[in-house]
């Protein structure tokens, strides 16, 4: 019946069957990017930028503006950060952000607390005060002590600016905004030095180690203690490194690192283009996009900080809900807040056997991987395969005439399964469908906004299927299968490593693969505790290893 | 002047209330929870049949009549009503308009002493045959209406008094003007009312219990500005609005036969409290899962009139309404004067599915899983509407 | 003088599909030279302008192609919204993007071919930046990108090696960016350089001084990244330099009245996106007329159009896959509804550009608007038989009013023709089978 089962033809069939947008993301697919994959500098993500500014200048500094889109590579923005650059328009945006921040820092309201010295005159230059300001904040922004030349240049620029404007603080704000658009701030560079214990070898210098650590664990800039430790060389000793890593892991700032990693892994950046049709989903109010991410991140942070088994996130009955999220899910939530108080998150436990347990049943997965008014089993199956199991779903189809599979009778296919089956009868299609559909169809009890349903267009929804040769009746049977899939833990550990380094860990037989194998093994022996894994990675040699390119550049 | 806020009334899709799992901890049998999403005096605006004279007019007509009543000539009144010539308006006109009552020989505000206004206006009242309501046992058969839904002869003298007034000329889902303003503004702050229906099987006829409560929280709105379905409301433990009513499902209606007193406490300007004596209620479920129904009974007419007169600017002849309500009051005569103190009336109610919980986290009621669970009280036809058209003809202001 | 775009309330509700807007006074003939192509007093040419207008998911099926070639062809029903502009349009049909064995990464590969001449390498310079480098130097913004359905990644504009330029999705934010406090009215009598801008310009030397130290420690790949960074920094510096010079007067320039409020982010209703497109069109027209940029790129939707008809759960893109072709009509009926909306939006955009009068002609007459899409036949997601259009004459260098069939030709030749029409001294463009060395000469005047 079909003349061809070539690769592209098979892909075409898959698209006909509703394997819809694969490269569907506001982040760029980095495939065939112009950049060179050996680049190692990482552009700060919007979240890192915000957290860094908040940590340095305080949370009352408003960061108002849009960031240049991020690049997603191998499933992570953290890897795409190696490709991310600054476009013309992006430079404008960074410049706007920088000026907004700098103006607030020197504003009469904030200067008393944020600027440690007072100028002799507010209308004239004061090099000593400017120097203190530039070298103090420069050290935090560039994550290292500034060179004398870097400081001196800016002291002079501040004085010149003050001379032009007759305003000392405009002088300061202009050099601060200049530092905020500097590549030394916007990008994280790694500096390599000669290892004094092994003069023929190179190693990462202390500042670079500190920055790698703090963006990995805190998603932010090194704090004063960490910079001091690196200045004293403590990070170059096993004992000193362990002390800092333990301090950081037990710090409250750890939460922002956990959040940043999981938000990246679960593609929460895609929420910026999520809008649901309120005719069909009136309970999906405008705040749900934010609440849904927050629900999942709270669930995860709680779980991870309590040192629970990562795999249990797939089946956990514990979560947090607000009143409006509870209404969206259709579950009762005891909120004893006084009338008129704002919505708040309340801990909630699903009853035993409830199919809505686990993070995959949450709006942040279910609604994110749906269209605005209807579900997409394919998108859901693909997201689970790629984002949580690190498996690859074949790319979208080639340019093939769909008329071969076109169903001209125009029949009404009631459920998502009907629609998919109508197309997947052909053996040529089965290859694609086996990958995404069993999972996606099992999640069809969740509508496009996250609500629970048992029928669609009046027809009962069939959520049964087979995964890895095991039959399941519905999502409640499927989740334990996913929980116990070895790919789940191997995927999260690889992505956590990549979140910290911008690179996936080495595959077997590549340099460093033995150390990685040991880390993965320990992860399992420990009972898949994410914090322990992060600690191990932060203490490993491979986390700080320098590449041959860096060695060459250092010579 | 037309301030109807129909923007809030976008109809929710049928999917909205479709499915929910049975919640754990629900009470025995079946208890389905709702929260009152709309409440108002029940209107039946078959305008041509109801008010053939069409003389009550609206805001400016009323103002013109009031100006003449305090002694201005029709020409002077017209000039003021027309506006634009502020110089010609006597400075004390506002005071004179209000201080029309005479108490102990001195001018007094007609808001506080409506009884004491000489020659109060007589407004047109309803003569049409139909209105929503219940047979409350009222004796005068010639004053009964026929209920458009049930065909029964019913008592609703309040509608007779107010139904030709501008501020009641609205057809659901719009509420009477004064009530709409009050409702729309205060539901975002005032505690909500909840009700639950308990029965062995609401897909079949049989006895049921309807329980009313007040919530500790206000109504939650959805993305369209309508009332959110499936939200959870906590039951106010103070219990002043706790009503347990016995009723039955039969012939497609859930009805509550006479109950002595039905009381709900609130914090809303138009609905500070609901008090109905000899109350009867009936409910149906609409296909979208919404509960819909009427509450009837006798209420204190002065309290109702106060709710009207305390909201000036409604465009209605509030003084005329006061005296019409007094005239048609049909129950509980004052032993001394013989004047009836209560009037038969009907509220129209809508409620959407909701969870009810106690403060100690017990689930007392959950939304029905789907329409079939309450099929015995499912309404098969759209809500009854008067044939006279939705937009009644208006008087033209000179 | 200020021109009101829309009342704030209307902006917030986003319900009005903007069409014509009255903008300023026409330039009096006496201000122009005899040929009408330059201002008499300054002798400066009226600036060249280039615009791209993108919509997702193609057009068709094939029945949008007129039966006759050349002038006086009958416009098919699918394009009827463009009837008022038929005489000022060049309609290209039949051309293909050559895949040379590459995978058709749907919604990406074809549009990459059209805009970059290359189906393999993402983030090569796109046609608008190539043209912008030629005509757009010396303006405050090298280009402006907008996305009407709310995806900042919707644009196809790429500066070599930098990634796609982020699109503005909020008309209010775009207004502030262009006509906010930094805007200098080109027609203001007096000009005083802003000391704050002077300061900003001079402190950039602080960052520039860091370049050598950074370069010294980086590998080749990171050095290339850094070079790109400094190219962007140079653009910022140039932008500030321009702000420090007195701008040439532009008589057709009026500043739109302030817009405030908050826009919705992502949109899914076609009607809302069309309304936003109307606002953007007006802002872009003012931006061009006021010399703030010479290149504007509008993406009506992203390639995978998420737009829906009110009350329907299936979006445009899903319909292109799922709807059967009506055997009588020969196209997908529900999909065509979207085409009709998009073509109407294109019409409205052209009306807006046309409403700006410069001498005896309109801004539209002098500029070149290149309308393109990511696919040919939508159901097939094909990269064949692309519906592409030019509007305007590129300052008299293009003939208009023709249907130009190019069956079997590479679509890249159309972009190449656009470059030559815009006066670029280029002799070849494209890679592999998409490489072209000659334009479609019949349309060049």
Structural class of chain B comes to: alpha+beta
**On the 0-100 scale, what is the average pLDDT of chain B?**
85
User: So what's the oligomer here?
Assistant: heterotrimer
Please describe the biggest sheet of chain C, giving its number of strands, its sense, and whether it closes into a barrel. 7 strands, mixed
Strands ordered across the widest β-sheet of chain B = 1-6-7-9-10-11-12-14
Q: Which stretches of chain C of 5+ consecutive residues score pLDDT under 50? A: 1-36, 39-43
According to CATH, the homologous superfamily of the largest domain in chain C is Alkaline Phosphatase, subunit A
What structural class do helix, strand and pairing data of chain C support? alpha/beta
What does this protein look like?
The complex is a heterotrimer of chains A (555), B (398) and C (445). Chain A is mainly alpha-helical and 555 residues long. In chain A, 48% of the residues lie in helices and 7% in strands. Residues 1-35 and 398-411 of chain A have low confidence and may be disordered. In chain B, the strands form three sheets. In chain B, strands 1-6-7-9-10-11-12-14 form an eight-stranded antiparallel β-barrel. In chain B, strands 2-3 form a two-stranded antiparallel ribbon. A two-stranded antiparallel ribbon of chain B has the order 4-5. Chain C is α/β, with parallel strands linked by helices and 445 residues long. Chain C folds into two domains: 2-186 and 251-443, Alkaline Phosphatase, subunit A; 192-245. In chain C, the strands form four sheets. A seven-stranded mixed sheet of chain C has the order 4-8-2-11-12-3-13, with helices on both faces. In chain C, helix 8 packs parallel to helix 10. The longest helix of chain C is centred in the middle third of the chain and has 24 residues, at 220-243. Chain C is globular and about 70 Å long. The two termini of chain C are 37 Å apart. In chain C, 60% of the residues are buried. The model of chain C is unreliable at 1-36 and 39-43 (pLDDT under 50). The chains are: A mainly alpha (555), B alpha+beta (398), C alpha/beta (445).
